[in-house]
Amino acid sequence: MKEMIKQLAQESVTIKATVAMTGAVASYIFGGWSTGLIVLGILVCIDFVTGLLAGFYEKKLSSQIGSKGILRKFGMIWVIAMCHLLDVLLGTEDLLRDGAVFFYAANECLSITENAGRMGLQLPGPIEKAIQVLHEKTDKKQ
């Protein structure tokens, strides 16, 4: 029993070290966790779930389409990382990274809106207006 507890403790340390290293690398690559990145992460999850729901609603659920969507999300993450690294190289603080985050957040909002429409849902006017404002902010940052 003692041996099993020791083994679990060692595995726990390994898991904690791996999580800590992953967090440190991600923090460096993305420049820390800003509110924009957190919001974007949540929007990515909502978009994925609403896409699944819309596909199910339309009886067009496809693992191939879902896989492509996931690959695009990973591509988006790496573009944001590249933008942060360019910010570091050029000394532009987080200008490029935040611009990319706004751009992708606006796209995610539009995609969520489209998914809601595919399920026959309407969005309240103020929400549509907020998405439009975000989209306009994105256009200005480009």
Automatic annotation (TrEMBL):
Q: Name one GO cellular component term.
A: membrane
Q: Does the keyword Membrane apply?
A: yes
Q: What is the native source organism of this protein? A: Laceyella tengchongensis
Report TM segments.
12-31, 37-57, 69-90
Q: Supply the NCBIfam families for this chain.
A: holin_tox_secr
In Swiss-Prot or TrEMBL terms, this protein is called Toxin secretion/phage lysis holin
Question: What superkingdom heads the lineage?
Answer: Bacteria
Record's keyword terms, sorted: Membrane, Transmembrane, Transmembrane helix
Q: Where in the cell is it found?
A: Membrane
Q: Which family is it part of?
A: Belongs to the bacteriophage holin family. Cp-1 holin subfamily.
Major localization listed first in the record, in broad terms: membrane
Please give, as recorded in its UniProt entry, the membrane topology of this protein.
Answer: Multi-pass membrane protein
